């Protein structure tokens, strides 16, 4: 299997050119073809010498994302199910907002974190994606948007998988996305979401970026979080909170805490009160997420009025909280749902 050309940063492409007897500026030309002109093959890169194009074709592969399914919601959300070279499948979602187009990318095939309300973990973890396979999701989405003169303006790493368990590939992806000579996505327009992989939170704090960090907590205490998120047994709630305090102190940046509201499980007023006490004095924001129904799970959605009451309690205790706007509800846009249906159909 040849390495993917999208796996390489600009600096790595320049180094490859030097090592192969080419001037380093050829690396910048190649990078421009990949991310500004968005070429789909080396043969299209007409300002590169023919011999170089042939050598690149021998040495590298473009990521092949085969479109298995594409659904478009009434609200403009587009969800792709892409097939990979090894017959695995991943999901990517484009979300349209009044402030621009956001793309939700996947970092792993499946997930081993095991959150009991999530479809992504059904079937477990198959493998990590390479940086290039994550990059290709954004490039493919941008190529679709090119037809209407639109662009990807923000990225959320909130698709299937745990990005902090695929840390190096995730960081390489981010460096490619924010490069000013490429897609040039603003760092503050990118959010990485983790279930609380404590060593990686500390590591990310040292990266010196402006990229946003979101932590999925989904419970206000250790016992309940362990029931909902088995990863809490590896990284207990208080250890996650301590890592978050370190991140805030180190970076001076606010953390978003994601909290999926599950009917009669973690959505009672006493849960809101306890959560507010845990988060007091932290520079943070709580994103309340009405849980999506997953047929394989038994959980139900929190009633609308209870969602608003949970928010009111947090805000009364000086914790900033918003309710996530639902998108793609009519096309199974929750993480892992489309892939789960595909996996089921493949085993029939």
TrEMBL record:
Q: Specify which residues bind [4Fe-4S] cluster according to the UniProt entry for this protein.
A: 111, 115, 118
EC assignment = 2.1.1.192
Give every Radical SAM core domain span. Answer: 97-330
Q: Which PROSITE patterns match?
A: RADICAL_SAM
Its localization reads: Cytoplasm
Which InterPro entries is this protein grouped with?
A: Aldolase_TIM, Elp3/MiaA/NifB-like_rSAM, Methyltransferase_A, RlmN_N, RNA_MTrfase_RlmN, rRNA_lsu_MTrfase_RlmN/Cfr, rSAM, rSAM_sf
- What domain of life does the UniProt record list for this protein's source? Bacteria
MF annotations from Gene Ontology: 4 iron, 4 sulfur cluster binding; metal ion binding; rRNA (adenine(2503)-C2-)-methyltransferase activity; rRNA binding; tRNA (adenine(37)-C2)-methyltransferase activity; tRNA binding
Catalyses which reaction?
adenosine(37) in tRNA + 2 reduced [2Fe-2S]-[ferredoxin] + 2 S-adenosyl-L-methionine = 2-methyladenosine(37) in tRNA + 5'-deoxyadenosine + L-methionine + 2 oxidized [2Fe-2S]-[ferredoxin] + S-adenosyl-L-homocysteine; adenosine(2503) in 23S rRNA + 2 reduced [2Fe-2S]-[ferredoxin] + 2 S-adenosyl-L-methionine = 2-methyladenosine(2503) in 23S rRNA + 5'-deoxyadenosine + L-methionine + 2 oxidized [2Fe-2S]-[ferredoxin] + S-adenosyl-L-homocysteine
The record's keywords, sorted A to Z, are: 4Fe-4S, Cytoplasm, Disulfide bond, Iron, Iron-sulfur, Metal-binding, Methyltransferase, rRNA processing, S-adenosyl-L-methionine, Transferase, tRNA processing
Residues given in the record as S-adenosyl-L-methionine binding sites: 161-162, 193, 216-218, 292
Q: Which GO terms describe its biological process?
A: rRNA base methylation; tRNA methylation
* Cofactor binding mode and count: Binds 1 [4Fe-4S] cluster. The cluster is coordinated with 3 cysteines and an exchangeable S-adenosyl-L-methionine.
Q: Where is the active site?
A: 91 (proton acceptor), 335 (s-methylcysteine intermediate)
GO CC list: cytoplasm
Which cofactors are reported in the record for this sequence?
[4Fe-4S] cluster
Q: Any other noteworthy remark?
A: Reaction proceeds by a ping-pong mechanism involving intermediate methylation of a conserved cysteine residue.
Please give the family membership noted in the entry. Belongs to the radical SAM superfamily. RlmN family.
Q: What does this protein do?
A: Specifically methylates position 2 of adenine 2503 in 23S rRNA and position 2 of adenine 37 in tRNAs.
Q: What is this protein called?
A: Probable dual-specificity RNA methyltransferase RlmN
In which organism is this protein found?
A: Paenibacillus abyssi
């Amino acid at each position: 299997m040849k390495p993917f050309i999208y796996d390489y940063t600009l600096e790595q492409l320049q180094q490859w050119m030097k090592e192969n007897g080419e001037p380093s500026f050829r690396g910048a030309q190649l990078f421009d073809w990949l991310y500004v002109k968005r070429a789909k093959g080396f043969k299209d890169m007409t300002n590169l010498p023919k011999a170089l194009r042939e050598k690149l074709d021998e040495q590298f592969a473009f990521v092949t994302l085969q479109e298995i399914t594409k659904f478009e919601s009434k609200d403009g959300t587009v969800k792709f199910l892409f097939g990979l070279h090894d017959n695995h499948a991943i999901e990517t979602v484009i979300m349209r907002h009044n402030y621009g187009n956001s793309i939700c990318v996947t970092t792993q095939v499946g997930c081993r974190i095991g959150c009991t309300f999530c479809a992504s973990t059904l079937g477990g973890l198959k493998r990590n994606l390479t940086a290039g396979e994550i990059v290709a999701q954004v490039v493919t989405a941008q190529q679709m948007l090119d037809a209407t003169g639109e662009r990807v303006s923000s990225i959320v790493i909130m698709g299937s998988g745990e990005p902090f368990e695929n840390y190096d590939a995730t960081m390489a992806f981010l460096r490619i996305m924010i490069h000013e000579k490429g897609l040039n996505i603003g760092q503050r327009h990118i959010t990485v979401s983790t279930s609380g992989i404590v060593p990686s939170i500390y590591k990310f704090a040292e990266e010196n970026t402006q990229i946003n960090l979101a932590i999925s907590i989904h419970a206000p205490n250790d016992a309940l979080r362990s029931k909902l998120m088995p990863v809490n047994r590896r990284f207990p709630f208080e250890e996650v909170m301590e890592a978050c305090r370190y991140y805030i102190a180190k970076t001076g940046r606010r953390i978003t805490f994601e909290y999926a509201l599950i009917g009669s499980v973690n959505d009672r007023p006493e849960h809101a009160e306890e959560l507010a006490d845990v988060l007091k004095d932290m520079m943070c924001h709580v994103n309340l997420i009405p849980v999506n129904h997953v047929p394989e799970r038994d959980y139900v959605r929190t009633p609308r009025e209870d969602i608003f009451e949970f928010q009111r309690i947090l805000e009364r205790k000086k914790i900033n909280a918003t309710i996530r706007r639902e998108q793609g509800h009519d096309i199974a846009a929750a993480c892992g749902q489309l892939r789960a249906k595909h996996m089921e159909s493949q085993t029939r």
